[in-house]
Amino acid sequence: MDQQTAKTAAAAIVAGLKKAGIDFVATLPEGKTFELTCAVEQDKELTHVPLCREEEGIGICAGAYLAGKKTAIMMQNAGFLNSCNALTTTSLQFQIPILMLIYYAGDIGDRGFTTVGSVTEPVLNAMGFRTYILRKQEDIDEILRGAQILADDSKKPVAVLLTKSVLGVD
Amino acid sequence: MQRYDYLKLIAEDSKDALVVSTGFASREWFALRPSDGNLKTRTLGLVSSVAAGLAIALPQRKVIAIDGDGAFLMNLCGLPTIAQKNPGNLIHLLFDNEVYEASGGTATASRTSDAVAIAKGAGYRNALWVKSLEDFRAAFTRAWKSNELTLIAIKVEPGQPKNLPPLKLDDIENKYRFMRYLEATEKKNILNPGFDSKLTVT
Asked: What is the DSSP string of B99-163?
């Protein structure tokens, strides 16, 4: 797949986030989400906070949520693992929702990250986070909006795992 | 001097600022300035990040983070993020007692590191050590009036007054009261009632 495919996919995901009401996005990029991170940065309607480490992003998004923002964090699954304490002692402890867009490194067919891939869903499940795997571009709007409503109503983090196919990357 | 002596000086000056605190400092601040605009965080280190999220989302409001050396050192990577967004309405206070006070009093690494140098290196344009009550109050007033992101760091003795009232707020109660306070003072709806969300999410 070429760069244009990834750009088109990134635009569709950003549009889906906005349709879901998201207006505040913290990111820590990974190679597969490069175009998506650029699309978030370039969108003037989204407040974008580029992070140095994922766990601080859970705190930043918590503060923004309290002030009325609809927040999402975009990270790799290794970054999700970095965030587990904050997700527990900030998000769950205070019942603060956040939409987590997690690149699924080590997913079926994704080379080089099988260790992190193999612990991702078990850890999400252990923490009690509803988790949806987004593989097809035609499902973007429905899954993102549904996951955001679920996060907002349950006042808990909800995970959407992004795969190579939905991101339009090899 | 202890942290309480310094906090006492700015309780009145803080007016309707949103104040995010952590550890033992929360009990002191809640006693000095009782308000639903106070929030006590739980995750060690994230007080500055939560305060920054508030400050970025509400640029018209003053936000104060009451940080401690243990928390500050745990979240060093949060500092360049804050400096990059540069929220001028955030005043970052660091009370450095050189120990993990809330967990018994063993030493932190702040004795052999320099928080102001770290903050400056991370990109804070305004970061300073203050050594007296007068200098602290002056620095606080300057940060407030200039509306520039500022770290004010103070070396303090561990400990707090013995007769402080206990914190009676449950975390979730604290969150709801804080959000309702913001709804009232910002005159906007923040919390969507879940049952009605299909009408209000987008």
From this structure: B-GGGT--B-GGGGS-HHHHHHHHT-SEEEEE-SHHHHHHHHHHHHHHT--EEEEEE-BS---TT
Query: Contact A14/A142 with Cβ under 8 angstroms?
Result: no
Integer angstrom CA distances of residue A71 from A67, A100, A122: 11, 9, 24
Q: Is residue B41 a contact partner of residue B53, using CB atoms and an 8 Å limit?
A: no
Alpha carbon distance B65, B50 (integer Å): 9
Smallest CA–CA distance, residue B171 to chain A, in Å, is: 6
Q: Other CB atoms closer than 10 Å to residue A72's CB: what's the count?
A: 27
Spatial separation of the C-alpha atoms in residues B155 and B110, rounded to whole Å: 10
Residue B23 CA to residue B72 CA, distance in Å, equals 12
**Residue B12: Cβ-neighbour burial (10 angstroms; 0-12, 13-18, 19+):** exposed
| Number of C-beta neighbours around residue B142 at 10 A | 15
Set of chain B residues whose Cβ sits within 8 Å of the Cβ of A98: none
Q: In the 8-state DSSP scheme, what is residue B88?
A: T
Q: Which residue has the tokens 């970061």?
A: B127
What is the token pair recorded at B52?
A: 């920054």
Measure the CA–CA gap between B54 and A60, rounded to whole angstroms: 7
Q: What is the 3-state secondary structure (H, E, C) of A59-98?
A: HHHHHHHHCCCCEEEEEEHHHHHHCHHHHHHHHHCCCCCE
User: The tokens of A148 are what?
Assistant: 């955001």
The whole-model pTM stands at 0.96
Give me the residue label for tokens 């709801």: B176
Supply φ then ψ for residue B129, to 5 degrees.
-90, 135
What residues of chain B have any CB closer than 8 angstroms to a CB in chain A? 20, 39, 41-43, 45-58, 75, 77-78, 80-81, 84-85, 171-172, 174-175, 178-179, 182, 186, 188-190, 192, 194, 197-198, 201-202
Band of pLDDT at residue A2, cut at 50, 70 and 90: confident
**pLDDT of A99 above 60:** yes
Q: Does the beta-carbon distance from B78 to A53 stay under 8 Å?
A: yes
**pLDDT tens, residue by residue, B172-199:** 999 999 999 999 999 999 987 655 555 5
